[in-house]
Amino acid sequence: MTRYFIRALAVEGFRGINNAGDPLRLRFKPGAVNSVFAPNAQGKSSMFEALCYAIKGVVPKLEEMPASDRPSEYYANRFHQGSPAIISLTLEPDDGSPQVEISVERLVDGTRRVVSPSGYPDPDGLLKSLDTEMCLVDNRAFLRFVEDTPLERGRSFSSLLGIGELSEFRQALETLAHGRTVASDFEIKSLETSVEGQSRELQRKEVEIRDELRSLADVALPEPLNLADVNKAAIASLKQIKVLRDHVDGQTLEGIDWSQVKEAIKTAEQSEKQTELAGVEQSLAVLRGLDASEDEAGAIDEVVSAAEALDDLVSQTKGSKFQDLYSRALAVVTSDEWDDEAKCPVCDSRLGFPLTDHLESCLAGFAAAQKSAEALREKWQRASWVDRLGRLAASTDLAVDKKEARQIADIGLQVERLEASTKEVGEVLAVLKKLDDTLLNERQVLEGKREDLRAVLPPSLVAVTEQVGHAERLSSALETYGELTASLDADEAKLGRRKAWVGFIKTAATAFQDAEVSLSTAKTQALESAYKSFYSEITRNPEIVPALRKASGSEGLHLVLERFFGLEDLSAPSLLPESYRNALAISIFLSAALESTAPARFIVMDDVTSSFDAGHQFQLMELIRTRIARPGNPAGPQVIMLSHDGLLEKYFDRLSADAVWHHQKIQGLPPRGAVFTHTQQADRHRAKAEQFLRAGQVDQGEPLVRQYLEFRLQQIIRKVGVPVPFDFAMRDDRKLVQGCLDAISEGVSLHKAAGDLILTRGQLARLETQHLPAIVGNWVSHYATGVVSSFDPHALLGVLDSVDELAGCFMYDCSCSGSTRRRFYKSLSAKHCSC
Amino acid sequence: MVSSDMLVDDYALRGDSGPPNWPWAGKKGEQDMRTVEFGLDAQPASMIEEFLSALEEEDAVMARLLREALEHLMPLPPSGQERSQKRQEANSQVAEELDQLALSENGGGQP
Q1: Are strands A638-643 and A24-27 parallel, antiparallel or unpaired?
Q2: A181 and B87 in contact by Cβ < 8 A?
Q3: What is the largest CA-CA distance in chain B?
């Protein structure tokens, strides 16, 4: 996969950079460590934010501001009016293909527009592909990483490992499969209740069908019920009645016109009394359907017992306010913020026992009561007598008081909401008893009426009317039975499909979660050796050994200390001082960066060392220079460091003398004025000194000659490792020209006497007979007099040449890389290679 | 390679009566368990696609519904409230399709 370096960045009209018509331009080298220094408020972070906007489409700091602050109005520079903010990026592919130029504009109305002047087909897509957790990092990223909860840290770490997409996918699956919500979204419980209710109703109808058929035809059909057999037996029975034969012959029960049948009986009977008898029979049949079943008493006892058990458990708790208190207290004492389990979070007093156990025990009482209430609800929902009570209340034959019907419904709701107790159950049972009494009374009245009618009607037609009544009710029951069966089948199929989905999504989520955890654990372990080594290199403290621990089966990631001054397995965020915490965070980021294969082959760091101790800062820079960044690590990323730290500026400046380091400085008058880049050339002092001297301006040139001399001589000492006196090493005011010359001369003499001096004879001769005397004679001796006019510009130009040639005495030609280059000796007695 | 066993305790939940071609049809304790494997060097997008394709091979209908639900849900909204709303919408869409399937199996409509 092609990866990209940043070659150049130009910004106009964005954040603190105005530069109207003359963008601030920074150039970067893919083959060098890049540093940019700017004092505070000179536009350095604006450059970083410009990169954020180009790559991420937002400036995170602005996006985190409250909407009331109108953050969108602060992207463009407030003094850059009327034209869009422009960020131009030049990217260099690492496979040698042509550079890609991309221009990102923020128009006056806030719209973002991305184009590629070099003709790249999908510039916005390319920028998006560069967006990883580690391509643009600032101090906040490290702080967050350390201070986040383990879960949040685990998720951001997944992004760091390049598997953030898996983490998001896993969260999506978990969202879809979440236990309670998935069952609720798919109404599983409600469908189950509906299926159970319909099954019970179906069984009741089957009993009714068998009863009516037995009364009509004296036939008992075997299990399972066969509707065709029912029809056949009923029709056969009706056909035996002469007065009905013409109306039922060749029909099914469903097809019979019962009004015609009744009319036929009426015609045969010629009696109003017959109609009345049929009505009475019908009403009695309805009332019989409201009778209690044989097992009803047992079912009532079950509900009563469940309500009593619930009352008992509820009486052992202290009410919902305490439940809330216990839950919140438990959340506090089990959180990362609470470190003493035996301390009360409300009054801070020491308890002498772990509060967690106590709170869990109290909450267990509430949980038991909740479970008991759910058990009561379940028994209630399954109780056939509750169904019957509903039908009694709805019966038009009993003329039930509306108030009682409402009371039954209200109590049903209380049970559903888990708010019922023995009191409500008792009230319902009282209503049931009252309705049963009314039912019994009504039946007795109707039965009396039926006996009266039978006494005055001819016996044969009374029996026929009764038979027709049975047949009509049988027909109605069969119709209901058919409808119920269809509805039940449909609901069962629906429930089956939905349950299958719930099983599917839960299993898929678990499988993916396990695999993702395994992968991120393996990837975390793969980084272990690198981040531990980096951390050790930065802090130089073997007493502290950090580690990343994946929480078992979850995305959580803990920062721990494997070793801490002899102690083991402690929390890193709790114990490490700020500089050490940042060192740990950056070690982890850098180890992940080395493993990254993302399209962005660069890391831009904005002031990441601002809370580092000075020692840690330099160790980190050395780590980056030698082991992380190109060219020290040829397979590594391009590193671009932005800093406002004056100490680091000296370090950057010193290194910029080498080709492996590219340093730039930003200066100007932001946010209204322009900001410019100053590239720090290694020989800038020499060039400036030469310019003054050739113009005869000795006063201006002389201090620069001195500076250049000191720079070059110290470079020799540093590169070749010339031993220096202790005070020279420790104090800047000792690093003067004479001190440097003395150290170099002493070092050369020492190795010469030892017989292992690496300098060639010619180099040694030129050093001793030409360059050292020339510098001493033309510079040091005059300088010591303090008389400026004693300097001759031509002599000083000669001093500049002499110091360069003196440096050349400590260099050799190296051809290791294929081409010949001048290189400093490794020491006064050795080369870097065998060239 | 890292792997994770995929299995389900009760595949009777499938709700259909066909041969057990469920991806996790093996009951606990049986040898033939399916696994999900993520290569250390593979790209996340291809891992996800591979995972979905594996589901598709075993149950094309469920896998299709899952893709539709994910399309609706992703990218995941940062706020819990929005996420919950999107989840309900996605699940409601899945439920509707599942009901259509059930209806069709029951002889009352088209899938």
Answers
A1: unpaired
A2: yes
A3: 49
Residue of A590, A600, A592 lying closest to A55 (CA atoms): A600
For residue A352, name the pLDDT band (cuts at 50, 70, 90).
confident
User: What Cα–Cα distance (Å) separates residue A500 from each residue in A312, B13, B24, B95?
Assistant: 39, 5, 12, 11
Other C-beta atoms lying within 10 Å of the C-beta of residue A580: 22
CA angle A288, A292, A296 (to 5 degrees): 165
Share of chain A above pLDDT 70, in %: 97
pLDDT in tens, A396-443: 877 778 888 888 888 888 888 888 888 998 998 998 899 999 999 999
Cβ within 8 Å of residue A659, ≥6 positions away = A32
Q: What residue of A is the nearest CA neighbor of B51?
A: A512
> Helix or strand or coil: residue A589?
helix
* Residues of chain A with C-beta less than 8 angstroms from the C-beta of B36: 511-512, 514-515
Say yes or no for a CB contact (<8 Å) between A500 and B14.
Answer: yes
pLDDT given at position B96: 94
As given in the structure block, the two tokens for residue A526 are 């793969």
Residue B69 clears pLDDT 70, i.e. is over it: yes
Cβ–Cβ gap B37/A515 under 8 Å: yes
C-alpha distances out from residue A507 to B13, B25, B92, Å: 12, 11, 20
Chain B residue whose CA is closest to A553: B4
String of DSSP letters for A530-579: HHHHHHHHHH--TTEEEEEEEPTTSS-EEEEEEEETTEEEEEHHHH--HH
pLDDT above 70: residue A286: yes
The answer, yes or no, to whether residue B70 has pLDDT greater than 90, is yes
Chain mean pLDDT for chain A = 88
The whole-number average pLDDT for the span A781-789 is 63
A547 touches A560 (CB < 8 A): yes
Residue B57 vs residue A657, higher pLDDT: B57
- pLDDT for B13: 33
The residue assigned the tokens 């890292």 is B2
pLDDT value for A441: 93
Higher pLDDT: A647 or A361? It is A361
Q: What is the pLDDT of residue B23?
A: 39
B15 to chain A: which residues are within 8 Å by CB?
493, 495-500
pLDDT tens digits for A11-48?
A: 999 999 998 888 999 999 999 999 999 888 888 899 99
CA distance A53 to chain B (A): 20
Token pair for residue A835? 């060239």
Q: Do A185 and B95 touch (CB under 8 A)?
A: yes
Residue-level pLDDT at B6 = 34
CB contact under 8 A, A497 and B75: no
**Range A527-537 average pLDDT:** 94
Q: Which one is predicted more confidently, A793 or A56?
A: A56
Q: Tell me how far apart the alpha carbons of residues A675 and A672 are, in angstroms, rounded to a whole number.
A: 9
pTM over 0.80: no
Exposed/middle/buried for A268, CB within 10 Å: 0-12, 13-18, 19+?
Answer: middle
Tokens at A134, concatenated: 């580690």
What is the spatial distance between Cα A197 and Cα A298, in angstroms, rounded to a whole number? 19
- Give, for A821, the enclosing helix (H) or strand (E): strand A821-824
Nearest 5°: the CA angle A823, A679, A101 is 105
Distance CA A159, CA A514 (A): 18
Peptide bond into A458 cis (omega under 30): no
Residue A772's alpha-carbon distances to A261, A709, A779, in angstroms, are: 139, 12, 10
Q: Give B-chain residues touching A498 at CB under 8 angstroms.
A: 15, 95, 98-99
Taking an 8 Å cut-off on Cβ atoms, the answer to whether B91 and A497 are in contact is: no
| Two tokens, residue A164 | 């953030």
